[in-house]
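name: query_chain
kind: protein
chains: 1
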Amino acid sequence: MNKLFFLLIICFLGLQLNGQNLLENIEVEDKMGGMSDFRSYLREGNRQFNARKADDAERSYRRALGIDEKSDIATFNLGSALYRQEKYEEAVREFEKAASSATDKMERAKAYHNLGNSHLQQMKVQESIQAYKQALRNNPNDLDTKYNLSYAMVLLQQQEQNQDQQDNQDNQDNQDNQDQQNQDNQDNQDDQQPQDQKREEDQQQQPQQISPEDAQRMLDAIAQDEKELLEKLQQKDRAGTRQNIERNW
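structure:
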């Protein structure tokens, strides 16, 4: 996806603002004694929002919600102010509340559209796709939502492809590590074999240890052999003198 296409996508991720249009539907009557303050906070928040003072707008919308906590108008606009400050997790909560409380399909579609944008900014692509689909169920002709939905689906496909590649790479790395480990084990065996052989040769060259009893028996046998040999030599000497025969000439 080239850079120009990405920039075009970002342009369509802008908020679908709801403040000015919904403000026209506020009842003029002050039924609860605080409606004038509610309207004042809401209008002030809208002015601050349009002046790019999102933090001030957030405070004004919260004051409005302090008067009417169930107002889907103030809730939606608070979500927009949070989104502009990149407080996406908080924006998600406000847009979810606005979408669930909205009675008008068009306003519900706007809430779901902005909910999808908030998810997408956090790279929660699957959640953004579901939100965009909900927006299109309520407003099938919204081209901005269709565009953002198509972008999110392309992004999801890329994520899945990247995940498949990463899984394949991990499997290959694991196989390579296993092969290397097997090779290391084989090298260790090759290195160990001459040492084992040398150890056996050393053991063969070392004299075997004998018990004291065996040593005594060996000495006795040697002494007996020497005694018998001495006796044989003495007998031979005696026989030799007897065999000293004179020669007749």
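note: Confidence is low (pLDDT under 50) at residues 1-12, 18-33, 236-249.
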